[in-house]
Amino acid sequence: MTKAPSAAEKRHLDRVGEMACLVCERDALIHHVTSTGHARITRTHRCVAPLCHEHHAAGYPYAVHQIGHREFAIVHGIDLYHWACAEWDRSQKLEREAKDPPHWKQYA
After folding, report:
1. In the chain, where are the structural domains located?
2. 8-95: CATH topology
3. If exposure means fewest CB atoms within 10 Å of the residue's CB, which of 32, 55, 87, 95 is most exposed?
């Protein structure tokens, strides 16, 4: 079982949770990415992506839980693992800027 998210991870989950589905831009759920497309990875609160129910849940022909991460990337042209890693990096950058804003922003 995954441990509870840290404060930074909670803010990241909230930010990703506000995004639209990466495929169709409808309202999204948070999908915890558990594969690089080639290998399984540990489920974390850092490696997440926004997907609508149809692109997330098993039972839909092109949903990630139906076809897997590798096939999802081929069908939809979106590598969820790399997208999620890049989005976590953006969240970390926002965290750093919130703690220590660039000096030029202090005078804006």
Report:
1. 8-95
2. Herpes Virus-1 (3.30.40)
3. 95
Classified as helix, coil or strand, 71 is helix
CA angle 100, 12, 63 (to 5 degrees): 155
Kindly give, in sequence order, each residue whose CB lies less than 8 Å from that of residue 91, ignoring residues fewer than 6 positions away: 8, 11, 12, 15
Whether the CB-CB separation of 73 and 23 falls below 8 Å is answered with no
In the structure encoding, which two tokens stand for residue 20, read together? Answer: 């639209």
Residue whose tokens read 């950058």: 93
Say which DSSP state 50 is in.
Answer: E
Return the amino acid letter for 76.
H
For the stretch 53-72, pLDDT in tens is 999 998 899 999 999 999 99
